[in-house]
Each structure stands twice: as structure tokens, then as C-alpha cells.
Amino acid sequence: MELASQPAQQQPVSGTRAFRLAHWVSDTVNGLRLKTARRWKFIPQTVAYQGYGSTEWVRVLGRVVLTSKPVPGSKAERLVQNGNQNFRGWRAFTSVPVQFTEVEIRLGGVTTRVRADRGGLVDTVVPVALTPGWHTATLRAEGTEPVEARIFVISADTKLGIVSDIDDTIMVTALPRPFLALWNTFVLNERARMATPGMAVLMDRLKVEHPEAPVLYLSTGPWNAAPTLARFIARNLYPSGALLLTDWGLTHDRWFRSGQEHKRRNLELLAQEFPNMRWLLFGDNGQHDEEIYSGFAQEHPDRVAAIGIRQLSASEAVLAGGHSDSGDHSGSSVPWIYSPDGAGLAKGLQDLDLL
């Protein structure tokens, strides 16, 4: 067995005295949460997320948290075992991240050891030779049971990939309005969240037409919500795909994480990782998707097959704080498609011979 190791070091905090103090306060609060969680018999758990990669490397995603365990024999335990959870959103935020703990990753005969970051997140690239298709990585942090992560390895011959936003694109949320954001995220039962009309059918048709195409869900949503979002995707028959989410709060060099920067950075990363692939980009006109996708298309016009924008209704636009300003792409070499639902976007893709 080949052993690959990665330096496991906490990133130093830079910035002003106030910024360093904020980090100290944040770490102290998290430490108190960890003590309280252990006192309430929360157990450490490694959470594995779906990853992706090439035949030479894979991107592995996971998280280490302390979480409550259902009482043996209880209804909650049966629901978890059967995959029929119907949690309110706030329950996703009761787990406590375990910072900077070592995580072992086993995949394709290679063992890699990395450290989770400040939010308990593992997001690492593992050099490993694999065949195209689905593979399984095993993740395990100290004191936790090993868990499996599905990894989709993309063939070098694959020419088309799919990137989709989540909020107001495949899921109706009206997320930007603060009150509704809190309601949708912390209060609403996960089964009450609605799928955007026609989008699941569109995505399924694309996978039938392009079975080798990877699907990536790129969102500014928090990693705490990843299990809920994965269940939403499966329950509404969207194709399986890696979730590329972010976290709120402090980083080692910023007061706040930028959702827009998160999307731009991951799109640029995909362009570097798969230089021969073109992407179908799906978003909505209620946030910043048009601006982000337009900038990416201007920088990499040969990497974008088309951009599909779901148009919010008048009421959705009010809840979302209005429409985005962009809309005229007549000078773009990349096709733009606008429609309020998946059926209209599908018609546009048919006209482009992409569907």
C-alpha cells in the first residue's frame, strides 16, 4: 500500500488585533460548545460528501463533528436508518465542528492523512490512479466510525459537464431576504422545500443524453445543510452530484466568507482541472449568478457550452430583493437561455443541439 501524507498544520491567523481577538473569541466559543456537547453525550462523527476527480487525482470532501445520536430503538433512529428523516432546518446546526483533527482517507490503495480546517471541513486533493466511473473512498477521524464517500472519476474524453446553483434554481427558496433565509434554513421542515418546476426532468434528460457528464451543485449554502440538500436532490430525482458549499463566519484571513468569491473560485478551479471540458451553467436572476457566469464566460468562452438562467416570477423577485441587473448578452459568444422553468430551458438547449 502506498502512503501519501499531507502537512497537517493550522493556518496562522493574520490581520489586525481586533481580527485576531475575534478568532480567539470564536475558538473559545467553539471550545465551550465542544465541552457542552460532550457533556450531553454527543458523539464524534465523520461525515462524508460526494467527491469528483480525474483518472489521476480526486477531490475528497468531508467533515468532522460532534452530533447527537438517536436513542436506540426510537422512531428517530428508525427514520435515520430508512432515510426518511424530516428534520427542521435548525437541527442541521446543532452539530459542533471538531477543529484541526486528523482524518485518514483510503482510496484505490492509497492512504492519505490530512487535518480538518477551522470548521471541521476536509477538502483535499488525493493523487491516485483510478478508472473512469464511480469509486468509494473511506474517511475516518480518530474516535469515529469509518464512513464511505462516493467519488465520480471523470474520463479524459468527457467533453461536457453540468454546474448548477441550488437556491431558486433547482429549489424554490427566495433565499436573499434575511427573514426568509432564516425561516427556510432554520425552521422549515426539509420535506416542505419545493423543487423548481421542470428542473429535475431537464437534468435527468441531460444525463440520459450525456451519461458521462459530471454534475456539480455549486452553492453559497453552508456545509451544515449538506445532508439535507443531498436528501432533497435524491428525493426530487435530481441526478447525483458533488455539493460545493461554503461556511459562514471567520476564515484565517477574512471577517466573512464571500459567497460570490466561493463560486468564482470553484469555477476557475474546474477550468484548470478539466481544460478540455465545456460546461453547462445553470443559475437564476435573483442573486449574482448572471454576473458570475458572465465573467467566467468572458474569461473562458471556449469552456462554456451554454448558460441557463431561471427567471424568477414577480413575487419571487420581490422576496429575493429584485432581479439582477444583467440581461443583455447580445455581444457574448456564449449562448444564454432564459426561462421561468426547466421546460423552457430544455427547449433552448434543444435549439442548441445540446439536448
Question: Mind explaining what this structure looks like?
Answer:
It is a single chain. Helices cover 29% and strands 29% of the residues. The protein has 9 helices and 17 strands. It has helices spanning 17-39, 75-82, 178-187, 199-209, 226-235, 259-273, 289-299, 314-319, 342-351, and strands spanning 2-5, 43-53, 57-67, 96-97, 102-107, 110-115, 121-127, 133-141, 147-153, 160-164, 171-172, 194-195, 215-222, 242-246, 278-284, 304-310, 336-339. Strand 16 (304-310), helix 8 (314-319) and strand 17 form a beta-alpha-beta unit. Helix 4 packs parallel to helix 9 (342-351) and helix 6 packs parallel to helix 7. The longest helix is centred in the first third of the chain and has 23 residues, at 17-39. The protein starts with a strand and ends with a helix. Residues 1-9, 79-84 and 252-256 have low confidence and may be disordered.
